[in-house]
Write a structure and sequence with these properties.
The complex is a heterotrimer of chains A (about 250), B (about 300) and C (about 375).
Chain A (H helix, E strand, L loop, with lengths): L3 E12 L2 E12 L3 E6 L5 H8 L7 E6 L2 E2 L4 H7 E5 L10 H11 L4 H15 L14 H12 L6 E5 L7 H16 L3 E5 L3 H5 L3 E6 L2 E6 L1 H8 L4 H9 L7
Parallel strand pairs in A: 3-8, 3-9, 6-7, 7-8
Antiparallel strand pairs in A: 1-2, 1-4, 4-5, 9-10
Helix pairs in contact in A: 3-4, 5-6, 8-9
Chain B lengths: L1 E12 L4 E12 L3 E5 L6 H8 L7 E6 L2 E2 L4 H7 L1 E3 L11 H11 L8 H11 L12 H13 L5 E4 L8 H16 L3 E6 L10 E6 L2 E6 L1 H6 L5 E5 L3 H9 L4 E7 L2 E6 L5 H10 L6 E5 L3 H10 L1
Parallel strand pairs in B: 3-8, 3-9, 6-7, 7-8
Antiparallel strand pairs in B: 1-2, 1-4, 4-5, 9-10, 11-13, 11-14, 12-13
Helix pairs in contact in B: 3-5, 4-5
Chain C lengths: L1 H16 L1 H21 L7 E7 L4 H12 L3 E6 L4 H8 L5 E5 L3 H8 L1 E9 L3 H24 L6 E9 L10 H28 L1 H6 L5 H30 L8 H25 L3 H19 L11 H7 L3 H13 L5 H25 L6
Parallel strand pairs in C: 1-2, 1-3, 4-5
Antiparallel strand pairs in C: 3-4
Helix pairs in contact in C: 1-9, 2-7, 2-9, 7-9, 7-10, 7-11, 7-13, 9-10, 10-13, 10-14, 13-14
The chains are: A alpha/beta (about 250), B alpha/beta (about 300), C alpha/beta (about 375).
Chain lengths: ~250, ~300, ~375
C-alpha cells in the first residue's frame, strides 16, 4: 500500500449560498504527479487554497502531509511548497538573493542554504546568472528557478498552479523534467494546467466541474472510460456541461 | 492587395537595446485567418502594438489595409479592431454599457452592426445588465470580442485571446473566429498554444523576435525533416532518461502520454524496442507518427 | 460631440459606482471643514502670561488681580525687565505679555485715558487672537466698572502687538485653505488616477486604437471632475455660511469664477501627472507628496509665509494654491472685488496656461 500524503473527505467550501467546492474526496500518494484539472471557475483555486492551509473548509476533512487542515495549518505550510504562474520570485533581487531569502523563510541554516543554492544553480546551469536580477532572466528560466526554490526546503508536497503558462515548448519540457526528478525523489506534485498534453504527464488526474470532482483516474484509464483518444476530448465531454464560470 | 504587410519590422526596447522584434517580414491576405505562434516574450504583442499604431517601429515598415502604420495612423485607428491580451473592458460598467460605449467611440451603434456580433452576443445577452467585472473568463472574452467587432473592422487583431482560458472556452472561441472569417474579416491572432495553430489558414512561428517559419500548418508539419516515432512505456521518466542515453536517438521529449523520438539514422522498430526492454522498461510501444506543429517548433528552436 | 457626451457619461458612471471614491469626494470636504471649524478652535485655558507692571499703582494692581482670577490665565509677574519678555516668547514659555506703563493710574484719573500694551505670540494666530480677546474683555469689564461712578468716561486703550505674524493670518482663514486643499486633492489626484487606471487596465490601448481623438479622452476625463469640484465648492461654502457663521462678504459669482480657474489649474496638473506616470500608486503618491504637501506647507494656510526664510518665501510663489488662497480670502473675508485680485488671477491663469502647454507637449498618441 502506498503512503497517502493528501487525503480529503467530502471537503466543502461555501461562500454564502455559493458552493465553490462541493464534497471533494480524493487521495494522493507519495511521489505521485497528480493533475488537478477543471474549467475556469470550477473551484480549483478554492480547493487548492484549502489544501495549502490558506483557507478553512466549511465542512469535511482533509489531512495534508499528516496534518489536519483545520488545526495544523502552520505545520502544513512548513511541509509544502507552492508556486504559481503569477507569484514566483522577487524580480528586483538576484538569483542568489532569492534563494537565500526563501531558504531563510523556511528556516534553513546558512550552511544548508549555501550548499543548496550551489547545488540548485549547478543543476539549472545558472552559474553565469547567479548574481543577475531575476527580472532580467527569460520567462522559462524564471519558472524553472521558481520551481527549484519551491522545493528548496524539501517539502513533502509541491502545489503548482499553472506553472508553464506561456512558456515555449522546449522550456516546458525542461520544466517537466524537473518535476519528474522531484517526484522520483518522493516529492508529491499537485499541479493544475490548461495544457491537455501536460495532463498526460501526470500519474493520475482529477477533473472538476462546477465544484465537484467528476472524474479521477490515470489518463489512459480515463480515455478508455470515455472511449476517446485524447485527454482533450475527455475534458471537453466533462466540462461542456458546466453551468458556471468564474 | 494584402490586408497586412510587414517589411523588416523591428522594435528595440530600452537602454540595453534588447531587440523584441527582429526584422520581421510577412504578409496576410484579405480574408485570411493568420496565426502568430510563439511563447511569451517572442515579440507577438510588440508586433500587434506596432500594427495597431500603438508603438512606433524602430526599423522597417508595415501596411495595414493599404495604409502606412506611421503616417496614416489615424485612418488605421478608425478601421481596425483590436483586442489586447489583458481583459480590457470597464469592470464597473455593465455588459451593455461597455458595448454601447465602444460603439459610440467608434462612431457607430450596436444596431448598425448587430449582424456581425449577433452569434456571440446572444450568448451573453442574458447578462447584459451585469457588470463586466462579474463575468466569467469565457464571457469576458466574448464581450471583448463583441467590443472589438462592433465597428465592423476590416482587420481584426487578437492578441493572445485564449491565454489562461480553459480548453472548452478556447474551442468555442476558435469556432467564433471561423464564423467571422466567413464574413470576410481578416483576422490576425496570436497564441502560445501550439495546438491552436492548425486552426489557422497560415501561421508564423516566432521566437525571440525572429520568424522561424511562415507556412500553412500542413506544409509546416509536412516539412518536418526526420522520421518521428511515438514511444510509450510504463514509466515515462525512466523512458526519457533511457532515450537520452541511447546513442541512436537524435532527440526525444515527452509529448502527452508518449515520448516523441527521432533517430540519427534509419533504425528498425524492433531494435529500439529491444533496447528499451533490455534497459528494464515494461509496456513498451513504438509507432511512426506525423509531426505536429509543436514538434516542428521544438525542431526549429533547436537549430 | 455625441462621442464626447458618451465618454463623459461613462466617467460619471465610474465615479458614482465607486462608493469609496464617492466618500472621499464628498465626505472629505465636510470632514475637513468640521475638523478645522470646531476641533481646532480650541478654548484656551490656563495660558501662561507675563505681566510687567511699571506703574505699580492701584489701577494696575486691580486689573492684575482680575486677570489672575480668570481661569484663562496663569500670571507670571516680572518686575521690570523688558528684555526677558522676548526671551520667554522665544522659549515658548508664554503666550502673551501685558505691559502697564508708568503713571497708569494717574493718566487714567487725570487725562481720563491710559494706554496698556498687549503683546502676543502670533505664530499660532488662533490662540493669539483668542487670548487678546479675553484680555481686552477683562480690561473693558474693569473700565465699565470704573465708569459707573464717574462723570467723565475713563478709557483704557489697549495697544495690541502681534509678534511674528502681525497680520494675524489664518484666523478664519481655514475655509479658503480647506477649499484649496480639497480642490487640489480631488482634481489632481482623482484625474491623474482615473487616467492612469485606464492605462493599467489596458482600456487605454483600445481607446487609442479608435477614431476617438486621444486628446478628447483626456478632456472628457476632466469634465466630470470639474463639475464635481464645483459641487464641492458649493457644499463647503454652505457649511461655512450656515454651520460656521462665516459669511461670504464678496461676490459669489466672482468666487465661483475664480474657483473654476483654480480647478482647471489643478486638472491640468492632474493630467500632467497622468501622462508622465504608468501606475495608479505612483500617480497617487506624486499627487499626495508633490501637490498636497506644498499646498499645506506653502499656501500660507497653515504656516504664515512671512515667518519663512526668504528662500522658502520665494518657493511659495510657484504654489498655485497660494494664489487661490489669497484670492478666496480677499473675496470671502474682506469682501473685495475683481480690482483687488486681478494680479493674483493673472498669475494663476498664466500658471494654468503654462501647465496646459507642458502637458499637451508631453501627451502621447501612442503607448510608451
Amino acid at each position: 500500500m502506498q503512503d497517502v500524503v493528501i487525503k480529503t473527505d467530502k471537503l466543502t467550501k461555501r461562500f454564502g449560498d455559493f458552493v465553490a467546492t462541493n464534497a471533494i474526496t480524493l487521495e494522493v500518494y507519495k511521489g505521485e504527479i497528480f493533475g488537478f484539472l477543471g474549467a475556469n471557475g470550477a473551484g480549483k483555486t478554492t480547493a487548492m487554497r484549502m489544501l495549502c492551509g490558506l483557507s478553512k473548509p466549511s465542512s469535511g476533512n482533509a489531512v495534508i502531509a499528516g496534518y489536519d487542515v483545520y488545526r495544523e495549518t502552520e505545520q502544513i505550510k512548513k511541509n509544502i511548497g507552492y508556486m504559481s504562474q503569477k507569484f514566483s520570485l522577487y524580480e528586483d533581487l538576484t538569483v542568489l538573493e532569492n534563494i537565500r531569502f526563501f531558504g531563510g523563510i523556511y528556516g534553513l541554516t546558512n550552511q544548508q542554504i549555501k550548499t543548496k543554492s550551489e547545488e540548485l544553480i549547478a543543476r539549472l546551469g545558472l552559474e553565469g546568472e547567479a548574481k543577475k536580477l531575476v527580472g532580467s532572466l527569460p520567462l522559462g528560466w524564471k519558472q524553472k528557478l521558481s520551481f527549484s526554490v519551491a522545493v528548496l526546503h524539501e517539502p513533502k508536497i509541491v502545489f503548482l498552479d499553472e506553472p508553464t503558462g506561456g512558456v515555449d515548448p522546449v522550456t516546458r519540457r525542461q520544466f517537466w523534467d524537473l518535476i519528474y526528478a522531484a517526484a522520483e525523489q518522493g516529492v508529491t506534485i499537485f499541479v493544475t494546467t490548461h495544457y491537455m498534453d501536460e495532463a498526460e504527464y501526470c500519474n493520475r488526474i482529477s477533473i472538476m466541474v462546477d465544484g465537484k470532482v467528476e472524474a479521477l483516474d490515470s489518463p489512459t484509464q480515463l480515455k478508455r472510460n470515455f472511449k476517446v483518444s485524447s485527454m482533450d476530448e475527455v475534458f471537453y465531454q466533462l466540462a461542456r456541461g458546466a453551468k458556471r464560470g468564474d | 492587395m494584402h490586408a497586412v504587410k510587414l517589411n523588416n519590422l523591428t522594435k528595440v526596447y530600452g537602454k540595453e537595446k534588447s531587440v523584441a522584434v527582429d526584422n520581421v517580414s510577412l504578409t496576410v491576405e484579405k480574408g485570411e485567418l493568420f496565426g502568430l505562434i510563439g511563447p511569451d516574450g517572442a515579440g507577438k504583442t510588440s508586433i500587434f502594438r506596432m500594427l495597431t499604431t500603438l508603438l512606433l517601429p524602430d526599423g522597417g515598415s508595415a501596411i495595414v489595409d493599404g495604409y502606412d502604420i506611421v503616417k496614416d495612423y489615424a485612418y488605421i485607428r478608425s478601421t481596425v479592431g483590436y483586442m489586447p491580451g489583458k481583459f480590457s473592458l470597464y469592470p464597473d460598467l455593465t455588459v451593455e454599457e461597455n458595448l454601447s460605449f465602444f460603439a459610440t467611440v467608434f462612431g457607430t451603434t450596436i444596431e448598425e452592426n448587430y449582424h456581425l456580433i449577433k452569434d456571440i452576443y446572444i450568448q451573453i445577452e442574458k447578462f447584459k445588465h451585469r457588470r463586466a467585472g462579474k463575468l466569467s473568463g469565457g464571457m469576458k472574452q466574448k464581450l471583448a470580442l463583441c467590443c472589438a467587432l462592433i465597428h465592423k473592422p476590416t482587420v481584426l487583431f487578437l492578441d493572445e485571446p485564449t491565454t489562461g482560458v480553459d480548453p472548452v472556452s478556447r474551442k468555442e472561441f476558435w469556432e467564433m473566429l471561423k464564423r467571422l472569417k466567413q464574413q470576410g474579416i481578416t483576422i490576425m491572432v496570436s497564441t502560445p498554444y501550439m495546438d491552436e495553430a492548425t486552426l489557422c489558414d497560415r501561421i508564423a512561428l516566432i521566437d525571440q523576435g525572429k520568424i522561424l517559419s511562415i507556412e500553412t500548418p500542413e506544409n509546416i508539419t509536412r516539412s518536418y525533416p526526420d522520421k518521428l516515432y511515438a514511444v510509450k512505456a510504463e514509466n515515462m521518466y525512466a523512458l526519457l532518461k533511457t532515450m537520452e542515453s541511447y546513442e541512436h536517438a537524435a532527440s526525444s521529449y515527452a509529448f502527452g502520454e508518449y515520448a516523441h523520438v527521432s533517430f540519427r539514422e534509419a533504425i528498425s522498430e524492433d531494435t529500439v524496442k529491444r533496447y528499451l526492454q533490455d534497459s528494464g522498461l515494461s509496456g513498451v510501444e513504438l509507432r511512426p507518427i506525423d509531426a505536429t506543429i509543436e514538434d516542428c517548433f521544438i525542431n526549429l528552436l533547436k537549430k | 460631440m455625441k462621442q464626447f457626451i458618451t465618454f463623459v457619461r461613462k466617467e460619471f458612471a465610474h465615479v458614482l459606482r465607486d462608493r469609496k471614491t464617492l466618500l472621499i469626494l464628498f465626505g472629505m470636504p465636510i470632514m475637513q471643514i468640521l475638523i478645522f471649524g470646531f476641533a481646532l478652535t480650541n478654548e484656551v485655558k490656563n495660558s501662561a502670561i507675563v505681566v510687567i507692571d511699571y506703574a505699580q499703582d492701584e489701577a494696575s494692581q486691580k486689573l492684575i488681580s482680575r486677570i489672575e482670577a480668570s481661569r484663562y490665565f496663569e500670571v507670571n509677574k516680572l518686575s521690570t525687565d523688558h528684555h526677558q519678555i522676548e526671551e520667554s516668547f522665544k522659549a515658548g514659555k508664554v503666550k502673551l505679555a501685558l505691559i502697564f506703563p508708568q503713571n497708569f493710574y494717574t493718566d487714567l484719573m487725570h487725562q481720563n485715558k491710559a494706554q496698556i500694551q498687549i503683546i502676543t505670540d502670533a505664530t499660532d494666530p488662533n490662540t493669539a487672537n483668542t487670548l487678546t480677546n479675553y484680555v481686552t474683555a477683562i480690561i473693558q469689564d474693569y473700565q465699565s466698572d470704573l465708569n459707573q461712578s464717574a462723570s467723565l468716561p475713563y478709557r483704557i486703550i489697549p495697544e495690541t502687538k502681534m509678534l511674528y505674524n502681525p497680520q494675524l493670518k489664518s484666523v478664519h482663514g481655514f475655509v479658503p485653505g480647506v477649499m484649496a486643499l480639497v480642490l487640489m486633492l480631488v482634481c489632481v489626484m482623482m484625474t491623474a488616477v482615473s487616467i492612469v487606471r485606464e492605462k493599467e487596465m489596458g482600456t487605454m490601448e483600445i481607446l487609442l486604437v479608435s477614431p476617438f481623438k486621444p486628446l478628447l479622452v483626456i478632456l472628457s476625463k476632466a469634465v466630470p471632475y470639474l463639475i464635481l469640484s464645483l459641487i464641492n465648492v458649493a457644499s463647503i461654502l454652505c457649511l461655512s455660511v450656515f454651520v460656521l457663521d462665516l459669511p461670504v462678504n464678496g461676490s459669489l459669482l466672482l468666487l465661483f469664477a475664480e474657483s473654476t480657474l483654480f480647478i482647471i489649474t489643478c486638472l491640468t496638473i492632474g493630467i500632467f501627472i497622468s501622462v508622465r506616470t504608468g501606475s495608479q500608486q505612483v500617480a497617487m503618491l506624486i499627487s499626495l507628496m508633490g501637490m498636497m504637501l506644498p499646498t499645506i506647507l506653502f499656501s500660507g494656510f497653515m504656516f504664515p509665509i512671512e515667518n519663512m526664510p526668504k528662500v522658502l518665501q520665494l518657493v511659495t510663489n510657484i504654489v498655485p494654491a497660494k494664489w487661490y488662497y489669497i484670492i478666496v480670502k480677499l473675496i470671502m473675508i474682506k469682501g473685495l472685488g475683481f480690482s483687488a485680485i486681478w494680479k493674483e488671477t493673472l498669475i494663476l491663469a498664466s500658471m494654468t496656461l503654462f501647465l496646459l502647454i507642458v502637458s499637451l507637449k508631453n501627451f502621447k498618441i501612442r503607448l510608451a
